[in-house]
Design brief:
Layout lengths: L1 E2 L12 E7 L2 E6 L4 E7 L6 E7 L7 E7 L2 E6 L12 E5 L5
Antiparallel strand pairs: 1-5, 2-3, 3-4, 4-5, 6-7, 7-8
Amino acid sequence: MRHQRHLGRQPEAADLDGVVLRDSTLWAVQNFSNQVSRIDLNGSLRKGVVQEVITSKNFDVPTTAALFGHTLALVNAKFSPPAATSFEVVLVRACSGG
């Protein structure tokens, strides 16, 4: 599921955990927000604009990510009680256009 809200805004670092960088695109995993912000960075990679916010009903405090082609793989931390005994990787499209 994708939410196209807050597009074109400056990124916020709320709940920032893992990051993935490919060329001038940054995916910022926001763990307790249960979302990933896809940010297009400028040429110096110092500033960027949120292009997409990626969410999934399967996120349970995602902590880190890896990019495989057009797919992001995110590991759930599952910090909610009771203590988790198993963990999974959630796969989502890295970009609605790709």
